[in-house]
Specification:
CATH class: Mainly Alpha
Structural class: mainly alpha
Distance between the termini: 60 Å
Order of helices and strands: HHHHHHHHHHHHHHHH
CATH topology: Na+/H+ antiporter like fold
Radius of gyration: 21 Å
Shape: globular
CATH architecture: Up-down Bundle
Strand content: under 5%
Amino acid sequence: MMLAVPSPAADAVPAVLLALAVVLVTAKLVGELAERIHQPAVVGELLAGVLLGPSLFGFLDPAASWLHLFGEIGVVILLFQIGLETDLKRLLGVGGVALTVAVVGVAVPFALGYGVCRMMGLPNLESVVAGAALTATSVGITARVLSDLGRLQDAESQVVLGAAVIDDVIGLVILAVVSRVVGGGTITAGNVALTTGAAFGFVVAAIVVGRLVVPPIFRLLARIGRPESLAPMGLAVGFLVAVLAHAAGSALIVGAFAAGVVFQPTEHAHAIERGVTRLGHFFVPIFFVSVGAAVDVRTLADGRVLAIGGLLIVVAVLGKLVAGFAPVWFRGRKLVVGVGMIPRGEVGLIFAQTGLTAGVLDGGLFASVTAMVLVTTFLAPPALKALLGRSGVQPTSGAGGSAELVTEA
């Protein structure tokens, strides 16, 4: 029986509290179990979602508004944390590499996915939507794994993080274009340019303005207030920038990441990060449980669904691996970069859901795309763990080992 909680119901609060208790306990237990078998905790949290979702126990309705709300807050907090640990100079230092990985990581999976669907006899529009679902990278999943491993400051991790953020912005542009197509709208170069400019322009503007405005305000807050107030005030800024990003046509998580980058060089970054991390222990697992709950493995019983899904999985993985090796001048571990770009997570599900809601994808093709999302989401964390291992650095310290980065002059 699903636990769908309508907001107006008199007993909504007790029902949500019960669901939260079950979600947190299950996520913690399965996460701990995953770590016991030397896998990242995020794998366990995703599995917890599958267990609680419609695939098995049916306790969670993945469409419940409260679950979506808490999950979105969780991923915003996560990306704000990651921004707090990201040195902008290092990120800009891998800018050319990251941009190359992102662009190739969008173009190649789309072309391969479209080609596979056409080869299987699917109509043109369905093939476009399915191919578009292969383009995105779930920055939340990869960032969480890199943070847990204490590897955020590695050169390869900086490339993955920068490429995933660019990828996410490109994905928003593609999603806007796909939404217009499935809605019967017309696509013009001006529309695409406007969407692209708004998405990328906001990130640049937020960082530039934030670096000028935020430090003096927080120096004043530190003088007149208690140290404990810095974390909630910093998070408030993160939420505000996330909302502004959404209003500007970008993504909430992109705005949250940009806000974290603004705080990173300030003397208050550590105090803010310490408080935000505590809050993240509550919200962030809910996000990964919600991603897992959105996957219904029962839809994979059909042979044609499995065939198309299997081909999409192959080209989804291959496309991102090719992207990792695209910047030939980069002397880091290109395989790590490629693997870090593999998970589609909630971003791929958004593409699939858009096609399903518009009537472009039928249940079978939606299940095939869902299978691709499921496998790529679960494949990347243990693969990254195997390639990177765990550094001796605590994942939330903001420090870490680094690898030499060599790019073209």
